[in-house]
Specification:
Length: 132
């Protein structure tokens, strides 16, 4: 299935060059900016994404808001079969870890992405770390 143009561009722009060009802190900030950018749309998944973006954008944002945003992106990826949304989930996990530190929740999101993108060896490593 064809990727949407904005998600295709997101994938191209964030495919690893951000750390080389902007430095780690700017790349970390970029990840958060990307996942909190308005997505638009009227589908239930789009409304859920918007809801969790607003909570994650708020002054008292908590890790749970980012986690729920990641799962909303997963729901959209499943419905649309657009793998670009999994890149947004990966960036959401990056933003969570930057802002709140590594957690089981951020690793679970990352593992889910790796599994769905058929990167099984990497997903297995994440899963093994989660059960220790």
């Amino acid at each position: 299935m064809r990727k949407s143009l904005p998600l295709f561009l997101l994938t191209v722009l964030t495919a690893g060059s951000a750390n080389q060009v902007f430095g780690a802190s700017a790349a970390d900030h970029l990840a958060e900016s990307i996942v909190l950018a308005p997505q638009g749309g009227k589908d239930p998944e789009d409304l859920e994404i918007t809801r969790w973006q607003e909570r994650a954008r708020g002054a008292g944002a908590k890790a749970e808001g980012f986690e729920r945003l990641g799962w909303a992106y997963i729901a959209k990826a499943r419905r649309t079969l657009d793998a670009g949304y999994y890149k947004l989930v990966e960036k959401t996990a990056d933003a969570m870890e930057t802002r709140f530190g590594s957690s089981a929740e951020s690793r679970l999101l990352r593992g889910h992405v790796l599994h769905n993108l058929h990167r099984f060896a990497e997903a297995e490593a994440v899963a093994r770390a989660l059960i220790v």
